[in-house]
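Table 4 source record.
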Amino acid sequence: MKLRELLKGMEVLHTEGSLDIPISMIHYNSRRVTPGSLFFCIEGYNADGHDYAAMAVDKGAVAVLLRRDIDLPVGITKIFVSDTRKSMGLLSSNFYGNPTENLILFGVTGTNGKTTTSYMIKSILERAGKKTGLIGTICNFIGDRVIPAERTTPESPDLQQLFHEMIQEGVTAAVMEVSSHSLELSRVAGCIYQVGIFTNLTQDHLDFHGTLEKYREAKAKLFDQSQLAVINVDDESGRIILEKLECPSFTYGIYKPADIFARDIEIMAEGVSFNLHILGGKIGINLQTPGIFNVYNALAAASACYAAGISLKDIQLGLEAIRGVSGRFELLDTNTDYSVIIDYAHTPDGLKNILTTARDLTDGRLLTLFGCGGNRDHAKRPLMGEVCGEYSDFCIVTSDNPRNEEPMDIINDILPGVIKTDCPYEVIVDRREAIKYALDNAKAGDLIILAGKGHESYQLLKGQIIPFDEKEIVAEILGREKV
């Protein structure tokens, strides 16, 4: 494709060199550049792509997109823009044929519930006979094909390539988790969402956004690219976002007046049943996953699919087909007289949701093992400790992903919250040893919650990626095959 065609719809300040050259590939990583490529000079937190443009040219790049001028060999085309990340998204969409124009695309944003809601939408769409793609935290799907995921929302060239592959393989609908980082960093620039969904907003990522208000504003950017919005009005931030929407919307909730709502909710150990009311219609839903938070996830998925024209019957069948999502309130088969659940909860509200649900599922003690990620929001650490202490009978404070922080420094930030509740606790820095302690000290009827890691199969420590699959670790400690 000619470079001139790739720049359609973009705000270009000025150019140097020919725009009538063919572009064979696009890259933001100079190490991956191939001859005939265009290279994006992206300014990151640890590196500046402008410093690697010469390397990209040496490897065969014929054009660069940049924000400030740099010395490059004669004949290399320069495209100057004010926002390289947004421009990268728009150009990537053009390069791959604007694939989201040919997809029924759902975008799910919010602090909690994105993954489960996405899987519920995928299940409903498949019940409706649509070949479906999914992009999210655990992995990516093109139909039944599984592709590993490096982050919740890929960088825009990788994202648009995934959408392009979906189109090539006959996918007609797709659902994706849309993180606040990706919205703030324009990774989804060029995407057209038929339906954008807001689940909730609680404290997280303030190390990146600074304030809850800016965090909410980042989430709200999804609806600038959505043809229709689905908003949780039980959430205060949802109501604030709703007031400022410029696109049509559906609302959902349990307690506040909403277009789509749940009534007659019955929570059981094996799941939850409720009546789903949709704009005058009503269907009974029997979820195979417990917890009031899963009622909200189901409402979000049902609202989005109904807005996209999916029948109530397919919504019912799709929701009832879900048997859980890896690492989301997942009960392990341990063959013991106590129970073990792993969950990805890593925010105060997420932890509260799983602990209040877990409390209803056990007649014994509720033992919670958790930590907080390093190089992330420090303010939520004591809040996590307080939630854990308030809703648990015993806390085991350990490491999560320490990254480049000292694990004990993170734990010391958590402990004031735990101590405030007077809940008994134990500090065990090594997470594997902490899990062993929990299993060794569990009594008949107890429920152990392993919170924070969920589906992750690694631990990040001092720049290293250490294999750490909690399912395998529990199995090894119990002397069993992977549970």
